[in-house]
Amino acid sequence: MDQLTRMRCFIQVVDAGGFSAAARAMGRSKALVSKYVGELEDELGVRLLNRTTRQISTTEAGQAYYREASDILQRIDDLQEAMQDAHQRARGLLRISASRAFGDHDLSRAVMGFLSQNPDISVDLKLEDRFVDLVEEGFDVAIRLTELSDSSLIARKLAPFRQVTVAAPEFIAIHSRPEEPGDLADIPCVVDTNYRFRSNLVFRDGEGGRRSVAIKGRVEVNSAEAARQAALAGLGFARTPLFMVRDDIAAGRLERVLEEYESDDAAIWVVYPHRKHLSGKVRAFVDFLVSWFEREALRGAF
Predict the structure, then answer these.
(1) CA 137 to CA 131: how far, in whole Å?
(2) Torsion of CA 39, 43, 49, 51, to 10 degrees
(3) How does pLDDT run across 115-135, given as a tens digit for each residue?
(4) According to the 3-state scheme, what is the secondary structure of 156-168?
(5) Of the candidates 297, 14, 4, which has an alpha carbon nearest to the alpha carbon of residue 159?
(6) Do residues 138 and 167 both lie within one domain?
(7) Can you name the residues that pair with 181 across neighbouring β-strands?
(8) Number of domain units in the chain
(9) 187 and 225 together in one domain
(10) Do 207 and 189 touch, CB atoms closer than 8 A?
(11) pLDDT tens digit string along 243-283?
(12) Residues forming beta bridges with residue 271, ordered by sequence position
């Protein structure tokens, strides 16, 4: 039995005025409470209580110990309550990891909207094109655009993630519109090395499987925005996230091709560790993102 439990037993006996009343209040047997107080006295090497068959009273040492122990236990209880409150409330620093392209577009709007509604939370948003180790690098959550593999992390789907193939209308007029994915092998393309398969684009085939097409071109980049700019400049077909070129397609600056071959296996996920003790700030952010992306989906953003 730990020291704090012995201290609490002693305090309860003094407050209740006896072992029987203390035992009832604590839900323990009278013999066990008496044993704990006796062990405390043995450990301290002093008598804390004067006992008679009818009543108990504190010794001089017992009075001093009662005052100090009461103060210590109150501070411990206050600390525990404060920690639990801080953990459950939406407050503190929230560290978020996301890709640069998505962070510079839709995600930044969502994060700033979340901050506007939660004045007790501050955010450290890190944008880089790699999958961070959340636990090892101290992140609370990450936003991932991928086909989710088995993971020890908890994941909630936020929205579908579409990667589209686009080109400028003038480029299509010169090189013709591809009718099926294999046509891209003979047409200049923009190679984005951030893409999972680099110079191989993966499409759905007509039987529900996948087909890989090797592409080549004059432009190789490691940025979705740079790939977009290359497509706008008429330098080739580019594979890019739909959110990067949504406005360009709507305005006619780019045209979307091979839609019927686009894969729908990937999604936008929010991932985080530790479901058992999920902090208030993480819970609030995840719930906000789910609602925010639902609203955006209703207006056709994803």
Answers:
(1) 11
(2) 50
(3) 999 999 999 999 988 888 888
(4) EEEEECCEEEEEC
(5) 297
(6) no
(7) none
(8) 3
(9) yes
(10) no
(11) 899 999 999 999 999 999 888 788 999 999 876 567 888 98
(12) 142, 155
- Say which residues have a Cβ less than 8 Å from residue 29's Cβ, sequence separation at least 6: 23
Please check whether residues 109 and 83 belong to one and the same domain: no
- Same domain assignment for residues 107 and 61: no
Amino acid, single-letter form, for residue 8: R
22 to 14, 57, 77, 191, 243: CA distances (angstroms): 8, 14, 19, 76, 66
170 with 126, same domain: the answer is no
**Domain containing 242: what range?**
163-261
> 151 and 236: one domain?
no
Same domain, 274 and 230: no
Statement to judge: residues 120 and 170 lie in one domain: no
**pLDDT tens for each residue of 15-25:** 888 899 989 98
Name the domain boundary from 68, 87, 106: 87
Q: Helix (H, G, I), strand (E, B), or coil: what is residue 288?
A: helix
Distance CA 230, CA 191 (A): 10
Euclidean distance between CA atoms 160 and 268, whole angstroms: 6
